[in-house]
Amino acid sequence: MQRLGPFSPGSQVDADGFASRERPDTGAPHLEICMITTPDGATSLDGRSGPLGGTADQQMLRAWRRACDIVLVGAGTARAEKYGPPSREGLRIAVVTRSCGLDWSSPLFASGRGLVVTSIDAPRVPVESVRAGTGEVDLRAAVAMLGARVVHVEGGPALNASLLEADLVDAVNLTFSPRLGGAHTTDAIATAFAGPRRFVLVDSARDGDFVFARYERAR
Ligand SMILES: NC(=O)c1ccc[n+]([C@@H]2O[C@H](COP(=O)([O-])OP(=O)(O)OC[C@H]3O[C@@H](n4cnc5c(N)ncnc54)[C@H](OP(=O)(O)O)[C@@H]3O)[C@@H](O)[C@H]2O)c1
Question: Is 15 a domain residue?
Answer without folding.
Answer: no
